Amino acid sequence: MKTMSYSVIRGICAIVMGLLLVAWPEAAIVYLVIAIGAMFLVPGAVSILGYILKGRALGAMFPIAGVGSLLFGLWLMISPAFFVGILMYVLGAVLVFAGISQLVQLSNARGWAQVSFGFYVMPVLILIAGLVVLLNPFAAATIPFIILGVSSIVYGITDIINLIRFRKKEGKTMSGEVIIEDVTPIEELPNEIQK
Hints:
Shape: extended
Number of domains: 1
Order of helices and strands: HHHHHHH
Structural class: mainly alpha
Distance between the termini: 45 Å
Number of helices: 7
Radius of gyration: 29 Å
Largest sheet: none
Number of strands: 0
């Protein structure tokens, strides 16, 4: 029964998490940046605390990288939307340059080889994706979280359906065979009988 209840809880949690990601993907992005900020803040704070508690007495150098990590973590946690915007603009620019670069390479390749129309499809799609990200960076950032949310909902629903559909009856398998839970070993036979 414990396995069944854990599976139901796991499925319900997956569905709830998926619904939250689909309903508020913008919040998920912000909380992800805040979590990354915490991952910078905590090691920085620990290194500074270690220096204050023991490092000065041992003559260790002041942890400048720890201060940088702490400040960067605080900055990420205080203004996460700013970093999401910067990251998406950088990603959009990289995609635009990558698409243009591939188009130029294909154009140059036409000088010595035949390049069919199909080779231009992916660079054009990359270029369009970059332009979409540049024109609407925050909406483009939410798409992966929406996909993750939908996947989580589907996982939770199928997990619960599978649990209901393929669960074992108490003490019996699906075919009605009795499950043996405890076996008492028989004493070993003498060597003469085994031969």
